[in-house]
Amino acid sequence: MPSLTGFKEDRVGTYIEKDPYSVLDYSLDWTNWMPSGDTITTIAITAETIAGDSAPLTIDSNSNTNYIATATISGGTAGNIYNVEYKIDTTNGLKDSRNFRIKVVERQA
Predict the structure, then answer these.
(1) In whole angstroms, what is the distance from residue 59 CA to residue 13 CA?
(2) Cα–Cα distance between 28 and 99 in angstroms, integer?
(3) Which of 48, 92, 85, 46 is nearest to 67 (CA)?
């Protein structure tokens, strides 16, 4: 399992809260999962589409280092919960997929 910092868990699984205005990086670290000497070669990051959503969650960009996959994510409609999936391939031919949810909440001062 990749390392998660700042995430919360409920009975459904892992999630993090995000304000609709924020544009933030969300990273998953596979260091403890991957065998020694293996590295991430490709990543694909997708966000769930919700029918009728006027301001969907958007994956603006993604990048990776040897063990960390990062997505810059913006948007989202307050009150919606989106599933985000990270898929990786490694130099040793391993493949993995991890999901978490983003709960969009209007944050107050």
Answers:
(1) 21
(2) 10
(3) 92
What are the DSSP E strand ranges found in the chain? 8-9, 14-18, 24-29, 40-47, 57-64, 68-75, 81-90, 95-104
Enclosing domain of residue 69: 8-104
Chain segment 19-33, per-residue pLDDT in tens: 999 999 999 999 999
CATH number for position 99:
2.60.40
Rounded Cα–Cα distance for residues 100 and 109 (Å): 26
What is the rounded distance in angstroms from the CA atom of residue 47 to the CA atom of residue 45? 7
Chain-centroid distance of CA 5 in Å reads 12
Residue type, 85: E
DSSP 48: -
pLDDT mean over 32-55: 95
1 located within any domain: no
The model carries a pTM of 0.88
